[in-house]
């Protein structure tokens, strides 16, 4: 088994170092190879996703990804911007199924901006379609408008589209995931306005016929955004398109206390996958050693579970994270009165200590 390690930009390198350290103490049999991606790759090779990095990712069984992006690249032509690296990896590796679990750890109930009783015990799974929708739809671009409100004016456009097989495969993923959980799927759409999402709703309903043991509800995206902060525990599995999933998963992340806690898995049809924290490269705190490495460490656990077939090792990491939180260690994003503020490295060291059966002291 081979894991491609792509730390990326900003806090990416710092959080990745901790995840790699955690994987190393598990003493599992796999090789790792590291490569540049994002802005770092652009600086070195003139492209955010160089051939070598893409080939390494394709050849590997799994990819562990940090984060990409920095404001300083905002002026570059789109194809050279760091974000194109992650979009390109998703597309080229066929990673259409994005799992973003939002779990509120008991120890962090008070770190959420919502009332503790609303989030205590929260465990929902957002499944975001990741290779279609308005993110990848063609045509897109800029032109002079020939119609609309201002004919003759400069305009920009993107294309929202989904094919039936694209919706079917993500619907199957969602229903199957729900079977392993609380057997409820909420499909989020905007069928009241968009043709693409009326089609989405119709196709999901059709696929549902094969899963009579799973409950299906449909919800408009605006209402879903509201329900997520009103009664988040009413959800089990949420399945939605690429753009709605992007937005709702950030919202769901905050329910857990911090986006710094949220791992993710992006899988292809044979469960090969890319694993990354749901947060970005946070250039504002990069290099300061204060970023929360737990989302990346938990992403490594997801990698062990979904792609590398090592569920016990995944359980061990997740238990170690809980032990560290129980011991009161907190990075700045989850810190509250009465807990101990630690940096990135100390947090990683504490997870390693917990894995080695040592007591964690604050
Ligand atoms: C995410 C990110 C990406 C996305 C960006 C960096 C392209 O926000 O993984 O959610 O929009 O998908
Ligand atoms: Mn996002």
Report the portion of residues in β strands.
15-25%
CATH architecture of the largest domain: 3-Layer(aba) Sandwich
Characterize the largest beta sheet: strand count, sense, and whether it forms a barrel.
Answer: 10 strands, mixed
Ends apart, CA distance between termini: 36 Å
Number of helices: 12
* H and E order: EHEHHEHEHEEEHEHEHEHEEHHEEH
* Protein structure class: alpha/beta
CATH superfamily of the largest domain: Isopropylmalate Dehydrogenase
Number of strands: 14
Helix percentage range: 25-40%
CATH topology of the largest domain, anyone?
Isopropylmalate Dehydrogenase
Bound molecules: 3-isopropylmalic acid, manganese (II) ion
User: Quick one: overall form?
Assistant: globular
The whole-angstrom Rg is: 21 Å
Question: In terms of per-residue confidence, which ranges show pLDDT below 50 for 5 or more consecutive residues?
Answer: none
Pfam families: Iso_dh
Family: Belongs to the isocitrate and isopropylmalate dehydrogenases family. LeuB type 1 subfamily.
Subcellular location: Cytoplasm
InterPro entries: IsoCit/isopropylmalate_DH_CS, IsoPropMal-DH-like_dom, Isopropylmalate_DH
